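Quick log. Single chain, no ligands specified.
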Amino acid sequence: MTAVVTGHGLDGLLAETGAHPFVRWEVTDELAATWWSAAGAVAFQRTRKAVRRTVNVLGDDDGVMALLDHLPEIAANVSPERRAFSVSVPQHLEPRLRERFRVLDGGDWEWFHTTTAPAEHASHERVVPLDDVARAGEVRTFLEAHSPTADTEPGQGERWFAVEGPDGSLQAVAAWGTTRAGAPHLSSVAVDTGLRGQGLGRTVVGAVTRAAVLERGVCTLGMYSHNAVARALYLSLGYDRLCAWSSRPVVIDR
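-> predicted structure:
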């Protein structure tokens, strides 16, 4: 039986994962207070937008499976008051998670990272800062119409950018937020459905990514896995797809 070792501290977690960018930019000292390792894999804590803790399992398949076998003990540490808590595993191992536990409906998503600024392009001049507080209603209406799964709301402290039409109406938007560990994080990318195919997505993503990398040296983003068009765009702009997650609420019988 593969041994599971409990670790403590962000430095140790980064060393265990070879300073994996997802861990580097999504995990803080507090979240890394306790983590677990087994045979080239780690289980570590994250938080969603709320304060609720979740667990991600990353690494070699055999080690991931050993950590999933250890999930009741991990849950007792991370979330002792809840019967179900969210677990993210590599997508190809989601069926194995279902073999071991009762799993509820969740989502499949991917995480991207780049430290290379896209080349400057003349179209980037069309991307302008957007006052998401003064125009919050307009932004919400635009997202509801053109990207209903967008998970960043206006007025929450992100930096927003837009491509506008001649009349000032929104044609494309994107939010520049910050990961838990301080990296720029691109979200809520949306293009007017009637204007798709004209390169507006490439324009807004390229301009914001370039600005983020030049300012901070890195940019990250996440996307739902069903969006093949977005994936191709991000890869073409120099992003690396480092993680493909299945996130599921897992019922733990205590």
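The mean pLDDT is 95.
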